[in-house]
């Protein structure tokens, strides 16, 4: 029996939450666990430093290129169909990665994983928003976000254990049962299909323009501050301008620009997300270096200290989402953004004498801030669009997250290159390293402060749908 508008279906809601939450866990878990295994992969496959960097870059590039088109395709052809396709591609790529015998083939499998992840990340959020009513949207999105941080938290530990005792290939192998279980749950328990804009055509020209622009931006950011990196970033920005002009004239745009031009809540919430991720993503990277170089911690101890932030995110995200169902999301999200500003600003005074307990307290504060911001902001974005745009909106959220993360790392890379230069971090240049950290965190705090404006002035969220969307027959 298919659910009707306004009619709750607890079994369907439960199945959707399990499947979507598992999908939101898989991607971050894989990213964080593979990072721990990179030295073992390098030794086994004889990879050089450039090839090793492509293990992460290939995944991010593939994901970035597919995110927005995936949302549009899902709105046209069905969100469940695209979701299951993504799971299948990701599972196949994971299984294939476990049996590769060369660096080139491993990078190809990472591209497959990135494409698959883009498909199921975009559609899992859209499916949840389609099934759950606005009155409970914040709660389920909070659980969804918490699963992301659980994956980030346990990934390094589990990845390290698997690599040490079973080898790095076991990290990819365990994705097979997880992926197959998710597929089985989807086929047998997630009944129905959800469409947003059936019958529309896909703007292939727009997809191509978007893909080339994002490729140039993301890859260019990874090559900064080299001249080729600057050229690619500028080219990517120019192509994005061309993409926007093309979309405004296209009869079936891959991205409806009216969501930004005529929907302040969606536009400001998206910009707030971009600035928030631009602020926070490099924190773990820089503090990991600080703890190991300045404080002399071994990698395992440094990783344990850094877990304070994602643990707080995982614990508080569901609560923040639940509160945002009862209180205007912009209030909770803005409180989170302000807390994040304070947390990042405190890091601008970091020195060699800072106690570990104070660093942990700082990470806890950042975790609280990001938890308060993330799920209410996501709920505001999804609540600001019509049902037919759920897939597209989810793709936009994921794209803002990825672009923010890449921008955050680009800022850190450029600052380190300008202040320290192309030399190893040693006791002789610890003062320069600390100056680099202070500079990056000052830039980050400034960006986050700007994000407070967009978060507060996004306007009041009025849900465009008062009931869950029934599956299409």
TrEMBL record:
It is found in: Membrane. GO terms for cellular component: membrane. The chain crosses the membrane at residues 12-31, 51-70, 82-108, 114-133, 140-159, 171-190, 202-220, 226-244, 265-290, 302-319, 331-350, 356-373, 406-425, 437-457. Pfam families: MFS_1. GO terms for molecular function: transmembrane transporter activity. Residues 16-463 form the Major facilitator superfamily (MFS) profile domain. The keyword Nucleotide-binding does not apply. It is a multi-pass membrane protein. Keywords: Membrane, Transmembrane, Transmembrane helix, Transport. This is EmrB/QacA subfamily drug resistance transporter. It comes from Desulfoprunum benzoelyticum.
